[in-house]
Amino acid sequence: MLHIQNLSKRYSTGDLALSDVSLEVDAGRVVALIGPSGAGKSTLLRCVNRLVEPTSGSVFLGEAELTRLRGGALRAARRRIGMIFQEYALVERLTVMENVLSGQLGYVGFWRSLTRRFPQAAVEDAFRLLDRVGLGEFADKRADALSGGQRQRVGIARALIQRPDLLLVDEPTASLDPKTALQIMRLIVELSRERDLPVIINLHDVNLARTFADSIVGLRLGRIVFQGQACEITVQTLNEIYGEEDWSATLTHQTSREEEADLLKSASRLELLTADVHS
User: Fold this and answer.
1) Closest CA to 32 of 207, 234, 202
2) Alpha helices of the chain — where are they, by DSSP H?
3) Do the Cβ atoms of 15 and 179 come closer than 8 Å?
4) Which one, of 203, 200, 275, 279, lies nearest residue 242 by Cα?
5) Helix 148-160 × helix 120-132 angle, to 10°
6) Could you give phi then psi for residue 50, rounded to 5 degrees?
7) Is the pTM of this model over 0.70?
8) Closest CA to 51 of 31, 81, 16
9) pLDDT tens across 112-155, in order?
């Protein structure tokens, strides 16, 4: 379980990025962060893994208080936290397999990672993960030859090879088309369930959050203004999070898991028809 208690972050400029944020994420559950740009969503993720130092408050992962750790203890704790990035953060000249294995850096050390000398068990684990994310036949492809969705799948496998106790996901669908976004979100939720992983995911797409997240946290100006289930979100809620707007269309449609499956099947059929036309 992840437990965040009264977390605040004020930058040296005086800007308040987070103010008294408290939330919990249970094992095998997905919590989505929504809110306008600058609301503090990415800052919150980075405070959890200590890429950004919080000004006050506490972060617990299990029994470990991450906000008190220093040096080697902090590095060891970071190995327990997987991170998936919006822009994939792959080394494009390396192969898919090499990018996935780079997630083992915290375990094998810099020089062994640099010379690609990974334990056989790690290599076997990487092959299993690539199969699981649907890239089993892409191990030897260079990262720069992949589509956006395939790159994000590599990023997911790289995060999971750490065998993390927590997954932090920052805008994983921002650069993806709607079908691929659905696939990536579904994959993240499935992996959370399979591995009993708590997941915090930062999303700009409210409907993706409403479809896939177990609970939703709305941030505005660094403060939590909503915390609850998708069904509890109203026009007033979205006005409080984002500001006044006509949200009726957003709330009218929420993609159910069944509708999501139908969308993916329809898109796949369209791809096959297109392939037949061009063949």
Assistant:
1) 202
2) 41-48, 71-78, 96-101, 105-108, 110-114, 120-132, 148-160, 178-195, 206-212, 235-242, 248-252, 257-278
3) no
4) 203
5) 140
6) 65, 25
7) yes
8) 81
9) 555 566 778 888 999 999 999 999 999 999 999 999 999 999 99
